[in-house]
């Protein structure tokens, strides 16, 4: 009996150990932090789906493509309401899409989102959020060229969708759906110009035109079907940008295809490839040794692939239709690099124009502002600039009880009698004035100080250094940079 009891106890201990230690040997907790499972970038905005099923969006937002319900550019990622169990995101130009585990698809942004003109808090900048694409069901994979999209179904077939004018109202857009014939067993798909390339489960790649060049329109169901085989086998992944498609062969060799090349051709210097993605006229490559490489293939014959600095022990890679990309390192950190116009990178690194200085930087964690433990929500963007928190005046100040006002200074003879904006912040017995001169001037209870305080401009809004102001006004603030929680007031004690 004792021997049997000992065996049972040993088996229980082994089962418990297997439950908490994965095959790699690293301990994980039940409340492990979420990591990115799918990331995609448009012209200047980004999306990320996380392992907990949530989605964050950031960057250029004129068409509501970030998904936060506004058209205000967002320089820090924001969690998108109304989406759950998301397993893949796809962005292109100024549109966004998300796929959930049940096979349903949502879209938002240009032509896929709605304007809301009567919102009292945001009368001219309110946008509708993600809307379900009702014609798509049982989907396993999605891709977009920035307007149309293709969904791969769980049964291995594919459906093309695209925006179109309603036949009864030429001012109203609707989404049309067209099942694509002639190809089955599909695993994934990319759009390269007017063509769709389908990667099948057997490693073959087939090509079908989705545009009728004779009629000058997208494919109709009545159009003839011509399917070409670009590779009979051996392909494990694809990516595309513009008219170019890139194929990854099972032996790690990267290939390029377009209508001029006719057949996929090997790219010199890009072997030992684990994964590839694209940006605008750029190919991004993750090699099997965990390093990250970039090839600006339309920048002249002498331009060669180069290694992206600071990118080591990379485990995953994603692209955009802009000039930037995203990667994940072994710790699960989401990184970005490239030209982040309008905050499309959300790394705070700004725009990079010299390839020699391109390097990765962590994508900022979404911020959650708490006042005495309660969430404070606001429309405008926040910023992290030189390691400091910045917020617009229409953010946390009202909830904190801080009175904010803007006036103009007296004519300043040092600046040709120019009148500067003067911002005031009043809380308790303290009144702070910031004169927006160059450099800014700080006054506390009417007395000028030599302390420096810096204002910034993001998304056409003046941004204020929250930590500096809270310190001057005597308001407690704690910022957890890992979780993104910013605790204000009593919750910061």
Automatic annotation (TrEMBL):
Residues annotated as signal peptide: 1-25
Highest taxon in the source lineage: Bacteria
Keyword Transmembrane applies: no
Pfam families from the UniProt entry: RCC1 (PF00415)
Name of the protein in its database record: Chromosome condensation regulator RCC1
Keywords: Signal
Species per Swiss-Prot/TrEMBL record: Paenibacillus tianjinensis
Keyword Disulfide bond belongs to the record: no
